[in-house]
Amino acid sequence: DAGVIQSPRHEVTEMGQEVTLRCKPISGHDYLFWYRQTMMRGLELLIYFNNNVPIDDSGMPEDRFSAKMPNASFSTLKIQPSEPRDSAVYFCASSSGTATGELFFGEGSRLTVL
Amino acid sequence: GDSVTQMEGPVTLSEEAFLTINCTYTATGYPSLFWYVQYPGEGLQLLLKATKADDKGSNKGFEATYRKETTSFHLEKGSVQVSDSAVYFCALWDTGGFKTIFGAGTRLFVKA
């Protein structure tokens, strides 16, 4: 069974450029989460979706960040324009919404903004 | 709001030593509790879980018991291996908002 798939694994870009990160959740999972991990702030929840609908985006840092989930098998996190302080590892995770709440994480996308 | 506090790292141990990583939580309801592990260059993966008071989660020699009276979920292993070197995250699942709240993570180094 394929796990959560993220792309790209590594992205290096220059300040001001647009960045799009992609995620394919596990088939059948109806919750999808985007997290950001940095040394300074640890693991932060940015936004999560249920059945493709954004439920809580209170963790999205600024209007430069946006996330979409056009269908059950695909989500994007976009940063436009990017800034050096956006450099981090971005994780996507999915869940089946069962009573235990277990999350399944992708391998992450490491973003470096120069 | 709900929160998770775990001991700061890094923790450095020799192989076959006993491991304890402390974790305490604050929650208004009855959350499920988790330990996730992150190996270098990888995403987090579930190590063990407990869904109610006095439950013991266990996996790969690791154990943790859900203690409601002390609001704790400490991770233990009797004999660590070099391959256990990783970052360990304590977490609670808030059933009300369907959010998982993570602790800051504890990095473990195991020396041969």
Plain-language structure description:
In chain A, strands 2, 4, 5, 6, 9, 10 and 11 form a seven-stranded mixed sheet that branches. With 114 residues, chain A is an all-beta fold. Helix content of chain A is 0%, strand content 54%. In chain A, strand 4 and strand 5 form a beta hairpin. Chain A has strands at 5-7, 10-13, 19-24, 31-38, 42-50, 53-56, 65-71, 74-79, 88-95, 104-105, 109-113. Chain B has 112 residues and is mainly beta. Helices cover 0% and strands 53% of the residues of chain B. Chain B has no helices and twelve strands. In chain B, the strands form three sheets. In chain B, strands 2, 5, 6, 10, 11 and 12 form a six-stranded mixed sheet that branches.
Overview in brief:
Chain A is built from no helices and eleven strands. In chain A, the strands form two sheets. In chain A, strands 2, 4, 5, 6, 9, 10 and 11 form a seven-stranded mixed β-sheet that branches. In chain A, a hairpin with a 2-residue loop joins strand 7 and strand 8.
Unreliable runs of chain B, pLDDT <50, ≥5 residues? none
Number of strands of chain B: 12
What can be said about the biggest beta sheet of chain B?
6 strands, mixed
Order of helices and strands of chain B: EEEEEEEEEEEE
- Greatest interface and its residue counts? A-B, 23 and 21 residues
In percent terms, what proportion of residues of chain B is strand? over 45%
Shape field of chain B = globular
Spans where pLDDT lies below 50 across 5 or more residues of chain A: none
Mean pLDDT of chain B: 93
